[in-house]
Write a structure and sequence with these properties.
Layout (H helix, E strand, L loop, with lengths): L2 E2 L5 H11 L1 H7 L1 E5 L1 H9 L4 E6 L7 H12 L3 E5 L1 H5 L10 E6 L15 E6 L4 H13 L4 E6 L13 H7 L8 E5 H9 L4 E5 L5 E2 L10 E5 L8 H4 L4 E4 L11 H14 L3
Parallel strand pairs: 1-4, 3-4, 6-7, 6-11, 7-8, 9-11, 9-12, 10-12
Antiparallel strand pairs: 2-5, 3-5
Helix pairs in contact: 1-2, 3-4, 6-7, 6-10
């Protein structure tokens, strides 16, 4: 086994850039998965792993070592690096000593159908990658079908990166199991009108309480607005039903991930 000791190694430089630069992730179609549990989920989900990077002095877990052996048998390059080199790649203190560079997986709107996409979520330009990851985790917990991330240039709204390290960590592996579509709102509007989905949206200005919906019609898509603005009127107008989450205290809104989780569990509780 040869151990890489140079921070200037091309793949080490690439991994570092993927961790810190969205433009590198977008250009290459790659992203970084950190930690034994998350890398294990990527392997179990048969994600396309380009290569692994690990620190032999840090990696004492038998499970992690078995992951490396399995990936080597599959022909994946597994790069041993010094502890000093690995520390330049770590996003957090006391890293476990393992990361994977993984190929992004995207679907298009044309790949979705009501028959196989019974309960989806569409987010209009979420700004916090951690919220994207947390929503993916809630979607997995509630059996949702997949996530759509929608830019809306007409309102100068653009989504955060679902492959940002914060999103990957917060998803707790759900990113590897749920279909992900990246599109824009104009294309989504045309597509949804030709489909048999019921589109539910949320707005603080809606009259209907989310608890008072008799039953949520499937197949459906839950449309959530951005953290700051929520849904603009023209976005809400595309929805078949718009509901509100009542706010009984002094705060005027919920965190996007929290609000989406509440809606997902209510939809699960009250199918039509």
């Amino acid at each position: 086994m040869t151990t890489i000791t140079s921070k200037g190694n091309p793949r080490i430089k690439q991994a570092r850039a993927l961790l810190t630069q969205r433009k590198e992730r977008d250009a290459s179609g790659l992203f970084v998965v950190e930690g034994i549990r998350h890398v294990g989920e990527a392997c179990t989900a048969n994600a396309k792993i380009e290569y692994l990077v690990y620190s032999p002095t840090r990696l004492t877990s038998e499970f992690a070592q078995s992951l490396i052996q399995e990936q080597e048998q599959l022909g994946v390059d597994c790069l041993a690096v010094s502890e000093q080199v690995f520390s330049t790649l770590a996003e957090k203190d006391n890293p476990a000593g393992l990361l994977a560079v993984v190929r992004q997986a995207h679907l298009g709107l044309e790949d979705l159908s009501p028959a196989s996409f019974q309960r989806g979520v569409a987010l209009v330009a979420p700004q916090d990658p951690g919220n994207i990851g947390s929503i993916l985790r809630s979607m997995d917990a509630t059996g949702a079908s997949g996530l759509l991330l929608l830019d809306d240039p007409s309102h100068e709204q653009y989504s955060a990166d679902p492959y940002h390290p914060s999103a990957v960590r917060a998803s707790m592996g759900a990113l590897f199991w749920l279909p992900l579509v990246r599109s824009d709102f104009a294309a989504f509007r045309v597509w949804i009108q030709a489909q048999a989905f019921t589109l539910y949206g949320t707005s603080a200005h809606a009259e209907l309480d989310y608890c008072r919906v008799a039953g949520y019609q499937h197949p459906l898509i839950l449309l959530m607005g951005s953290e700051r603005q929520g849904l603009f009127p023209d976005q809400a107008a595309v929805c078949d039903v718009v509901v509100k989450l009542p706010m009984l205290g002094r705060v005027t809104s919920l965190n996007l991930a929290t609000a989406t989780g509440i809606m997902l569990y209510k939809i699960l509780e009250k199918p039509a």
